[in-house]
## 1
Amino acid sequence: MATSTYDGDIIAWANEQARLLRSGLFSQLDIEHIAEEIEDVGKSERRELKSHMAVLLAHLLKWQHQPERQGNSWRRTIKVQRKDVLDCLKATPSLKPHLQDVEWWDSVWAQALNIATKETGFLYEHFPESCPWKADDILGVDWFPE
């Protein structure tokens, strides 16, 4: 079988690496790039959790700051994003410590503020500088900010 390069065709490369692993041909493996790809899986999972949480927080902000616009669409988005966050945490329990990490929350909050300001037209100053809610509340099935 012809060898594929990591930079040339990553899918062909990945299939080839899997074949080499299954065949026990360990000396032919591209160890450095395999390690990179494994690390990237973790980064991807962290990005997914952050993205779902940011969308959830943005909708909670909109819910709180635009009560006249509250409706089933926002309620549904909040419900779906809560479920997606909880699914991420269930599938990858090692992500749970992020919920206790101040730097992670700061980053997620910044992303949520970006979303909320774009979607509401409000200035950043309209919203709190940091997340005013507890993770347990944010992820609580029936919780909505007042």
Note: The two ends are 63 Å apart (CA to CA).
## 2
Amino acid sequence: MPTYVYETIPDESTQKPRRFEVFQSMHDDALTHDPDSGEPVRRIITGGIGMKLGVLKRSTVVDKKSPAATACGCATGRPHRH
């Protein structure tokens, strides 16, 4: 289950919003109020883990006799179905 970041929505423009984290299921509805104070809140989208994965380029030659190519379907040109 992911941890979501929420921010309070202040009544006055001079107040600073307060951020807090909540551990909840992806299937749960987003909170509308702080469980502790009852203040209205909004969910904040934060940056996740940036990952750059290598990809096969068109110029990459696949050894169609290798066990990996046979298992993934690269040898036949069709994806492997479980």
Note: The longest helix spans residues 67-72.
## 3
Amino acid sequence: MERTGVITFKGNGLTLLGNPVKVGDKAPEFAALDKGLGLVKLSDFAGKTTVISVTPSLDTPVCDTQLRRFNAAAAALGDQVAMVNVSMDLPFAIGRFCTTAGIDRAVTLSDHRDASFGQAYGVLIKELRLLARAVFVVDKHGVVRHAEIVPEVTSEPDYDKALAAAK
């Protein structure tokens, strides 16, 4: 499925691929690689509320800020909330970024191989093969309780709304 008119990059329209996910939907399963090349699925977090932060590339200032904010927030949310970040960055680049930035609470995943997450959540950018900036909160029963696709890729998400949905 292709959708236009949902996001822009510096004011220029882009096309999103995949099925859009809405609040109340059963969260789609996905598989992505962790920084050690291990396969991680949404079902690995079953029984926990899961905040899924989606960033185009960790090597940009807004993505850097987004992951750091959610990583810091993870401590206050406790063990019953999983904090996950998904990007198209290679696992090795993610590992380097996390070491340098001190990311120690968020699980960072790479969707570069199959774009499984991007397609399942409708956030794969056709023109760039990157993921649109977004945040999804999935409750412990696997239901989407918050879904935000940020309209302008260079803007930050609404952290407060996402974290409120996670509590």
Note: The chain is about 25% helix and 30% strand.
